[in-house]
Amino acid sequence: MNRLEGKNVVITGAASGIARAAAELMTAEGATVLVADLDPARAEEAATAIRETGGSALARARSRPSVRRC
Question: Going by DSSP bridges, is the β-strand pair 8-12/32-37 parallel, antiparallel, or unpaired?
Fold first, then answer.
């Protein structure tokens, strides 16, 4: 079943745990997933694993924004 065919999904923290499982599930349902995580190597590994199983995924790593005190 491809309930998410043609949909794009961004999942934060998707390099591991429940967020990774959600990314895998959503690609199995036809979505393209952006695997967003603080660790670039783990984000790419997760996206690669998804692609190897026939899913569509991209990896992006973002650093925590710096917060300046006033």
Answer: parallel
What pLDDT, on the 0 to 100 scale, is given for residue 13?
Answer: 93
Extract the tokens encoding 57. 């995924």
Radius of gyration of the chain (CA): 13
pLDDT of residue 62: 75
Beta carbons of 16 and 38 less than 8 angstroms apart: no
DSSP string, 33-61: EEEEES-HHHHHHHHHHHHHTT-EEEEEE
What does the CA dihedral 30, 15, 10, 19 come to, rounded to 10 degrees? 80
